[in-house]
Structures are given as C-alpha cells and as structure tokens.
Write a structure and sequence with these properties.
There is one protein chain. By secondary structure, the chain is mainly beta. The chain starts with a helix and ends with a strand. It has a single domain (about 25-325), classed as Glycosyl hydrolase domain, family 43 (Tachylectin-2, Chain A, 5 Propeller), CATH 2.115.10.20. The chain has 1 helix and 24 strands. Bound molecules: (2R,3S,4R,5S)-2-(hydroxymethyl)piperidine-3,4,5-triol. (2R,3S,4R,5S)-2-(hydroxymethyl)piperidine-3,4,5-triol binds near residues 105, 207 and 261.
Length: about 325
Amino acid sequence: MEKYLISAVIWMAGYVMMAATPPIIVPGAIWPDNRGEHIQAHGGGLTQVGDTYYWFGEDRKQSNPRGRRYVSCYASTNLAQWTFRHQVVQLADPANLGRGWILERPKVFFHAPSRQFVMYAHIDNRTYKYARVAVFTCATVDGDYHYLNSFRPLGHESRDIGQFVDDDGLAYLIFEDRPFGFRIARLSTDYLNVDKEICLIPEHLEGGAIVHYDGLYYALGSALTGWDPNPNRYATAKTLAGPWSDFKEIAPPEKNTYGSQSSMLVKVTGTRATTVLFLGDIWKPNTQWDSRYLWMPLEIGAGKLTLPEPRDWTLDISTGESRIIK
Ligand code: DGJ
C-alpha cells in the first residue's frame, strides 16, 4: 500500500512539474492553434485584456472565400498556446479598391472609457496607391468588428501600421508615410481618429514597432523591400518626440533579421523580470497562408537592442522570465 502511495506521490510531483514548465515556442515552425490549424494572424498585433492576450492578424487561409479580406482573433494566457476565437473581420471591398485589394497589419486598441475595441488596418488597392487606414469597432474583443470608415491619418499616406500603448495608457499609431519616413501620432480621445503628430522619423522604415523599456523608447522597423527580408533597424529616444538616435541593425546584417520582418514589440512584466519580445513575420509571398512567425525574446537595455539567433524558448508569464532551451 505504502509502495503505491509513494508512486502516486512521485507521479503527482512529476505532473505538477510538467504543468509548471511553460510550453515551448519554436520560431519559424508551423504554429498550431487549439484546433491543430496553423495560426492565421499574419502582420498582427497583441492586445491584452486582464490576464488574456488576444492576437489579431491577417487571416490568409486558402479556403477563405475570395473577394473578402479576413482578420482572425486568437486568445492565450501564456503567449504560447492559442485558442482560435473568431474571424472578426470578413470585409467586402469598402471603397471600389478593385481586384487584388488589400487589408494588412490589423491592430486592436481597447478604449477603456467606452469599453469598445477599435481596430486599425492598412487598406489599399493592388498598387498600394490608396494608402489609408480603415477603422473598425466592436463592443467585445472577439465579436464581429464593424467597418466605420477609412482615411489618411493627418492627411498623410499610410501603408504599414504599428500600434503602441505607452505606460501612461496613451495610444499611438505608427505609420509609414512615403517618401517622408515613419510617423508616430496619438489617437483621439475616442480612438476613432488620429489626433496629433508626435514625431516624423525621416527614415524609410515599415513594420514599425515601439517599446518603452527602462526609461528609453526603442523604435524599430524594416527597410522597404516588399515581402523580402532585410536587416531591420532600431533607434532610441528619451521621449517619443525625439530626438532619436541613429538607426542600427538589430542582428548581423547578413542574417536579414533571420528571414523575418518586424510587426510588434511586446513588454511582459512579471514578478521577477521584464522580457521584451520581438514579434515578426516570415513571409511566404506565394503561399501566404503558410507564412510563419518569428517571436523571440530580445536582448535589450542601456540603449542597445539585439535580436538573438532564433532558438526554441519558453516564457514564464507570471515571473516574466524567458529561457532559451536549445
Ligand atoms: C511589406 C509590408 O510590410 C507588408 O505588410 C506588405 O505590405 C508587403 N510589403 C507587400 O509587398
């Protein structure tokens, strides 16, 4: 009897240890959701509500009916295991954009005063000349988002967009305005518009992302090389308005950001550490549904930021600690 009791205790201890080991994230691999399907959230972004992260991105599934453009939403409490929630946007061409029109890089902001979710996305025609943002709203995080309108933020061309919510809760849109550079602009108090330009960084960068870490802002982006990877670069500043430092590569330039392109920077603060994650896309232009993700913890601090060589890793969401495992 005692023997069985001891084995049961050992088994339980093993089970508890296993349960306590965070799941592994494998950069560049097929990333199955709870249904076993590769996650369709390309060019995406994360929105945190309470303990849950929601990942929104372009849904480029092969079986999607043609003509419409799709955004899907997934939920996770550990950033590794994702549950498909809903195809939150299934938009028909809203402005006679014509064959091959595009909807890219959706980003969702939670507007606390109205408890409304506001999505921004880049919409365009196939030649990328329309250069506008589309705005959608929804009363729930993973419901059907309703298209509101589209516009050029502050009258400027806008292609790739990124989102940034500062530690003080203020929300910003980052957008690529060719030929001037990339702009950081604050959202209006209801989040439905872009209110005020904070900075124009005169660099030709897209896939713009920002994080505030240990008293410094870090902005990064990729060069304009279509779907092909290039050496992504970053700069730092004490305030969002700048002045920004010179831009430097985030990884050895010959690695071309390990085949990926920036989409977002996410700061995870736990009980023991703060980890900043690089969220990037590995695009497969001819088989977009199979495009992969390169998520990695960054080496960051004292004005330096490095994307390490992709390896399998884990994140303990409660302590904030990440660990490279092989
Ligand atoms: C690079 C952008 O970052 C992508 O979102 C997409 O617009 C491609 N260019 C299209 O070539």
